[in-house]
Amino acid sequence: MQIGESLSRDIRAQRTSLDELGDRLGDSASAALENVIEASTAATDDLIAWLEAEADSKTGPSGIGKENYTWYQRNVHLLPMTWEVEERGDNFQLKHFFDKLNVIESIPIALVRWEMTGRDDQIDH
Fold first, then answer.
1. Residues 6+ away with beta carbon under 8 Å from 4
2. Residue range 41-100, pLDDT digits in tens
3. Which of 15, 18, 81, 108 has the fewest beta carbons closer than 10 A?
């Protein structure tokens, strides 16, 4: 499986999550939130179509590079993801990460990060 196929699959899961969110909120969602969900759904559909159209031409790393991508995932999103994990297609799913994060609730984010990733560099010892 190529990176483009993997990303397209993951973005389709995001699309499904947007549908589920809209269904779960039903009539309780504000008009502003409904608009955001609609816009997100349209943007996701556009991205899926673009990824599928471009997938065959994408045969290796591009964009910001492997090291920068890994830094971005770990230091901006605080996710235990690397380029290699994505390339292998490991079973990490952002939805599961946030489901686990939501269960933890009011624990300081640095402790949550340590619990979920094993990285303790943001904890004062």
1. 51, 52, 54, 55, 56, 58
2. 898 888 888 888 887 887 766 667 788 888 878 877 777 777 777 776 666 666 776 777
3. 108
Gap between the Cα atoms of 25 and 21, Å rounded: 6
Token duo for residue 60: 């290796």
Q: How many residues does the chain have?
A: 125
d(Cα 64, Cα 108) in Å, to the nearest integer?
Answer: 31
pTM for the predicted model, two decimal places: 0.45
Cα 104 from Cα 125, distance rounded (Å): 21
CA distance 21 to 109: 24
